[in-house]
Amino acid sequence: MKANNTEYLFSYDISDNKERRKVERLLKDYGFRRQLSVFICRLTRGSKAKLLKQLNGLGLETGFVMMVRISNYSKPETIGVCSIPDMDSEYAFVI
């Protein structure tokens, strides 16, 4: 049976160099870099669960990682410290 892969976009904004390098190394194991802080990963249900567990295990304190399913729009998931502004504010996420 063929594995059901789904593409996800991961983007991060982390101020601490050590934390940022850990996230970068981890994401490189699952996908490829699209921009400096953006990766695209094709994941099975199992590999997605494993990656999210590993990201959560990093205990990010100086930023966040955002994950968005590419094939269908879905609500972004974030790992770490992130204050997402109200949609009526002056901020916007561009993906």
The CATH class name reads Alpha Beta
Helix-strand pattern: EHEEHEE
- Assign the CATH topology: Alpha-Beta Plaits
Number of helices: 2
Which structural class best describes the helix and strand composition?
Answer: alpha+beta
**CATH hierarchy: architecture:** 2-Layer Sandwich
- Kindly, what is the distance between the CA atoms of the first and last residues, rounded to a whole number of angstroms? 33 Å
Number of domains: 1
Sheet having the most strands: 5 strands, antiparallel
How many runs of DSSP E, i.e. beta strands? 5
Question: What does this molecule look like?
Answer:
There is one protein chain. The protein is 26% helix and 33% strand. The chain is globular and about 35 Å long. The protein has two helices and five strands. It is of the alpha+beta class and 95 residues long. A five-stranded antiparallel beta sheet has the order 2-3-1-4-5. The protein has one domain: Alpha-Beta Plaits, CATH 3.30.70.240.
Quickly list its features.
95 residues, 5 strands, 2 helices, single chain, Alpha-Beta Plaits, five-stranded antiparallel beta sheet, 33% strand, alpha+beta
Summarize it.
The protein has about 100 residues and is α+β, with helices and mostly antiparallel strands. The chain contains two helices and five strands.
What's the topology here?
Layout: E1 6-14, H1 17-28, E2 31-35, E3 38-43, H2 45-57, E4 63-69, E5 77-80
Antiparallel strand pairs: 1-3, 1-4, 2-3, 4-5
